[in-house]
């Protein structure tokens, strides 16, 4: 009854390490310096797999991993089917915002009631937000570098993650609306939670303790 933990490289991996440590789990090798995808830990029955951030919920849903750490953005876009979400880990914090070119009058465009062309990787979040505002949108789905879309005239606005705001600034874009605050969640496969309860519970409890929620 081994345990597989799905993480993504970069900030989520870095910020999850202390939580794993609280559960007595240390990764044997530095994944940032390796091309491997599966990493053993100090515990013989626990391994870590590294996948794309947006694939973490998918691995956990289908049992490729028993648990994982996923940004709320990725979780909303995934839909959360088959996932138990016991903890907001409050790591990898940022926000989802609407941004436009500095010379684009967003308020006027919204008030005029025409269609706004939105480029984003976060189509579910964006669709819901503009529907609630009563703004009609045409959605262009992108997988990265959203900032480029308004600069090339492909879109009026983007919906993207912002943390310091320096990426927007560097591209002459301005944040015009904050849609929601984002942090990462612990996600657990619902079937595994029942079948591997004994092994998973202490890990979940250690994570809860480490973020001050025990
Ligand atoms: O890169 P890939 O396509 O594999 O996936 P990803 O970009 O979703 O993964 P990753 O590892 O970059 O981010 C994982 C998770 O970290 C996201 O799903 C968020 O929940 C969270 N997070 C927190 C962020 C940021 N902060 C963040 N700043 N994810 C991305 N960014 C981007 C942002 O989109 C911007 O383009 O970083 C850039 C810099 O942001 P500023 O505002 O600090 O300049
Ligand atoms: Mg990225």
From TrEMBL:
It catalyses: 1-(5-phospho-beta-D-ribosyl)-ATP + diphosphate = 5-phospho-alpha-D-ribose 1-diphosphate + ATP. Gene3D superfamilies: Periplasmic binding protein-like II. Its EC number is 2.4.2.17. Pathway: Amino-acid biosynthesis; L-histidine biosynthesis; L-histidine from 5-phospho-alpha-D-ribose 1-diphosphate: step 1/9. Heteromultimer composed of HisG and HisZ subunits. Lacks the C-terminal regulatory region which is replaced by HisZ. HAMAP family: HisG_Short. This is ATP phosphoribosyltransferase. It comes from Comamonas denitrificans. The lineage of its organism: Bacteria, Pseudomonadati, Pseudomonadota, Betaproteobacteria, Burkholderiales.
